[in-house]
Amino acid sequence: MPEGNQEWAMWANEHAFISGVVMIMGGITGTIGFDGYQFAIYSIVAGLIVCLLEYARSCRRKGSTVERRFQSFLQPVMMLGSPITTNYYVRFVLYLVLCIPCAFQLPTVIGGISLLIAALIYFKAALGGESWTTAKAPKRQKTLTDRPPVNPPPRPPPEAVAHKNGADNNGYDPNN
Question: What parts of the sequence cross the membrane (predicted)?
């Protein structure tokens, strides 16, 4: 696939969303039995921010976007924060800054590294000219089922039915 046709934003969206979940789980683990619980609490808050930013998927160039459930409620919020929430350069810098404090506690390191990778993917998407756009759900046409079918159901030809019953071969019966 040529370099110009590759869409990096969808991959970055999924990766950043999972990074936010991992940051939340690492933060919960870090508050239970590790020193430096402040970094763990930071990881929980930063993970929630990342998950809220990444929950709404962007519309693809082809327009074949599969929306997440209840995404339509977050799309107006994302558009209100424009151009900060729709620009991938801003997300790159934001995630780069958010991942740094996660390196100071063991349970939050994996979430921080994962968010760093997501930031780099967003940087690649921004270099490719991509930006967040509202996904529009396709309108489904109502199907009418009160009309009878136009074509009859498929049936085998009469020769095949006769051959199955043993009355084939033009009346010749080898048993007689």
Answer: 12-33, 39-56, 104-123
Q: Tell me the whole-structure pTM to 2 decimals.
A: 0.71
By the 8 A CB rule, do 78 and 125 touch?
Answer: no
Domain range for 74: 7-127
Q: Which residue has the tokens 């095949």?
A: 160
Residues 154-170 pLDDT 10s: 888 777 666 666 555 56
- A 10 A CB-CB count for 129 gives 8
In total, how many domains does the chain have?
Answer: 1
Residue 69 domain-assigned (yes or no): yes
Domain membership of residue 123 (yes or no) is: yes
Q: Please, are residues 10 and 57 in contact by the beta-carbon 8 Å criterion? A: yes
DSSP string, 33-73: H-S-HHHHHHHHHHHHHHHHHHSSPPPPSSS---PPTTHHH
Per the document, the length of the chain is 176
